[in-house]
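User: Show me sequence and structure for the first protein, then do the same for the second.

Assistant: Starting with the first protein.
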Amino acid sequence: MEQNTQTQTLPEQTGEQALLELNDLHTSFFTKAGVVRAVDGVSITIPAGKTVGLVGESGCGKSMTAMSIMGLVSRPGKITGGSILFHGEDLLALSPKARRQMCGDKLSIIFQEPMTSLNPVITVGAQVREAILTHRRDVSKAQAREQVLDLFRQVGIPDPERRYASYPHQLSGGLRQRVMIAMAMACSPDLLIADEPTTALDVTIEAQILHLMRKLQQEHGTSILMITHNLGVVAEICDYVYVMYAGKVVEFAEVHELFRNPSHPYTRGLIRSLPKLQAAQERLYNIKGMVPDLLHLPEGCRFAPRCEQACPRCHQEIPPLYDIGGGHLVRCFLFQPEEEAMAESENAASHSEEGGTP
């Protein structure tokens, strides 16, 4: 059984005000084959005006965490526990209508591939204008059009009047992603969720998009949840980082601390697998084994079957998050405080004596 995790939260550690708080969030999919626990007790805090990274391999639950925040989990998926506090209000307690109004107005999302998110038979300008008209009832169509053109200029779309009348297939991948950013920023949201926004782009366009997001954040004070598997993006744009594995957060730290002192064996493996320009490498390091099937999760620590430092206990119990200093949290028994380990050992010995033969 999982032990109770420590309850330190980011604002308490940094003195910053929380904009969004996920508390013990559970999102599961109920299939004929069984229950898939895609998000399993995730707690995340995003401070106002900061960029928080959510990192991990494909299938670890990053995107499903974003979908849960935005209320986009569809059947057979369901949020089964926890809370999502936004400005102190639990989004899960809102009516469907109020939730829809909130998401798109104060909460926005940029998806990984714009071609699957933009309507192919409607011009991109009309689509961004519709987002404004939906949430700003006091704005006329003509005013909304001018706002769209201004947004296109802000996100660096050349010749905005002509691009306004373009269809998605007539734009490059980089321009389509700029359109998605313009749409997400149309109502000046307090929180922008970016779900792998640069995956399909080359490195030059990726750098431009990241620069644009930083610029918009500085100008509008928007908080960003950056979901990615790219540690280079994390180092470039994030203030804090959560590392996820098989539905759970396994490490949290300030971004410089994470790269300076990666502590969970999974995080160390991710960073170790990065190519190093200064070093001669015959082969890149890779984490052995495979990501576990969420239908058949291993007992105990979910990374234990792939961990080179796993002990028997790791295969039996799920570790809590331990604070190893300065708010750096690690879900690993390697970092259990010595006094806690001694107390557990004494308690186990006491139970053994009580159950022994007198």
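Switching to the second protein now.
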Amino acid sequence: MAVRHRLIRVLAVLIVLTVPSTPAPSANAQQGSPAEQLIYWPYVTNGGEYRRVAYPTQVDTIRVLADTPIVLEPRRTTVAYWPLTGEYLADLANRNEPVAGDLEVVTASGEVRRVPPRPYTIWYPNGVGAGESVLLVDEVAQSVYAKYVADATKAAQDEQAYAARVAELQAAVDAWLKLAASRVTPLPPPPAQLTEAPPEPYSGYAAEIAETPVVSLPAGAYTIRWRGPDGSIVPGSERRLVSFSARRQAVGYRLLPENRWTQPVDMFNPDEVLYLEGSTSVYLQPILVEEYNTSLYVRVYQPQLLDAPDPSLFTWVPRGPLQGTRLEVRQGQQKETVPELPYRVEQNAGTNRGYTIRPLAESDATVTPDFSAMRVRADMAPATQLALVNSAGNEVTGSRRDVRRVAASAGVLVYAPALLPLLLLLVTRLRRRGPATKETRAS
């Protein structure tokens, strides 16, 4: 036994000596040691809004939508690895140094295109973070920005003037109440109420005019680099850029069931079949959609995404409502045309609550509709197909769908199969107890 223990100890020592030691990670390594880098900090878009996305050197490919203007500019900053998200983060808040020079775009065939700086602005019609944004350049950018400054300034002045009138009226009311409390006679009439409506809030915003290269590229693979004022390529400025376009376009539908209109269902894929419940009317909203490669599309805003989708997957992206069309509901040779109308949702009075959806009449021009849609009534003949037609009566490409009417849910009967095992168990126990009870009585 002693000899065996010695052999085990010798083997353990040999293993320790032959295995290379791994030093413990330092605090800087765990948190990511900051390092100076030249990064790209472009304004990119997914087709709906523009965002700034940082591309450190660890992300060698910039992905953008084809034939869409984007801002491409480098910055000198510090970059550190953040293990919690698995990303290399640029500290642009503390260091954000522009790099002088021009952008160069090199095509796959070796053709070099130089892109000088030009004035631009990002215009947010509904305010920052409210969805849509547009990249504007040159004279259009300067005109929109000048108008934004004038309109926003006037809106602020109108709001201040209105607030001053409200404060003045409140002071007059307070003074009149003091007179009334002191029983002054004769008591003057109270101040007239303010009948003026408050000014409409201004929500638009335009970023301050800046100058940098703005480029729009056809679908393909490119190399971008930055050429400094001395004519040389700035070290570390070369990146790969992939510009991709939609695989196809179509018309999608947003379904608003009448009994739960606040829970819409999106049906964007033109190969899908629309299943409509036979007892409920449904409101359809046509939407322009585009199909993109999922792996490319999600990396526009998340270039360092670790769990990248399968490159063979595709996703449908909404691009906005389609207007100026009518819905044609078909059953064999029979057709019924449904126009798009504005609708208002009104809460019902009483303890049962609920709501009623009614179309807005022409006399309701001052009433804001809750939504606009095409109503497929529950009492229509069971449709087998539907499609959109334009003003000329021609079918809109990509809008046709097959339709299947399904019966309403059976309610509690849906759970009947789950109760069968319990019912069988109950019957079995009753049968077992039955003979034993008879024997007891006979005895």
